[in-house]
Amino acid sequence: MDKILIIDDDIALCELLKEYLAGDGFEVTAVHDGMQALHIIQQDSFNIAILDVMLPRLNGFEVLRKLREKTDMPILMLTARGEEVDRIVGLEMGADDYLAKPCNARELSARVKAILRRASKASANNSTIIEIDDIVMNEAEHSVQVDNIPIELTLAEYTILKLLMQHAGVVVTKETLCQQALDRNLEKYDRSIDVHISRLRHKLGPLADGETRIKTIRGIGYIFRSN
């Protein structure tokens, strides 16, 4: 049974979500401020966290920053509807995806299941090694090295990089990346893929000639380049 941690100060919403998600077969724990969240994560392990931005004592961004220092657990951010800045900041800090509030329980459950499916696929026993230039992706170890130096990737970043490397030299559309890497359709004005790509570029570094490894094909998508 997958374990979910909900971090949100709306107690009524937490109770509603706990009831719905439990009915979907999840074990759900809810806490209502950032300090509580950090404490309980030290005591227990969870498959995914649902993290609200607006929290007392320690806001969602601070919680996200501290979690990313210690764990690669998938994190779904809850942001106020229309607050694109919060969504982008959350993704830039390492959130795997976001959902705008108010959201319904069914939509949230579907998004959680999609993220956990990706996590399950990523951790499945697979001996494939993808190697392009100085980048080595070992699927069995769920690891990536650049010039023999391990780099830390979120689940979303790892899945996007895997798709791009599997199709190196070929343009992969944003729609395809969203559907296959995030397991959902690309939404209007959705910048999730763009932000994940930006983080990947920073972590991977440039090619030997100084050019980016992941080139933007404006209006279409991205292409993974090699030396």
* Gap from first CA to last CA: 45 Å
Give the overall form. Answer: globular
Number of strands: 12
Per the CATH scheme, the topology name of the largest domain is: Rossmann fold
**How many helices does DSSP assign?**
8
Specify the structural class. Answer: alpha/beta
Oligomer: single chain
How much helix is in the residues? Answer: 40-55%
Mean pLDDT, nearest integer?
A: 92
Radius of gyration: 18 Å
Strand line-up in the sheet with most strands? 2-1-3-4-5
Largest sheet: 5 strands, parallel
Q: What's the architecture of the largest domain, going by CATH?
A: 3-Layer(aba) Sandwich
Q: Quick one: CATH superfamily of the largest domain?
A: Response regulator
Q: What do you see in this structure?
A:
The chain is α/β, with parallel strands linked by helices and 227 residues long. It folds into 2 domains: 3-122, Rossmann fold (3-Layer(aba) Sandwich), CATH 3.40.50; 125-224, Winged helix-like DNA-binding domain superfamily/Winged helix DNA-binding domain (Arc Repressor Mutant, subunit A, Orthogonal Bundle). The chain has 8 helices and 12 strands. The protein has helices at residues 11-23, 34-43, 60-68, 84-92, 105-123, 155-166, 174-181, 192-204, and strands at residues 3-7, 27-31, 48-52, 75-80, 97-101, 129-132, 135-138, 143-146, 149-151, 172-173, 214-217, 221-224. The strands form 3 sheets. Strands 2-1-3-4-5 form a 5-stranded parallel β-sheet, with helices on both faces. It has a 4-stranded antiparallel β-sheet with strand order 6-7-8-9, with helices on one face. A hairpin with a 3-residue loop joins β11 (214-217) and β12 (221-224). α2 packs parallel to α3, α4 packs parallel to α8 and α6 (155-166) crosses α8 (192-204). The termini are far apart.
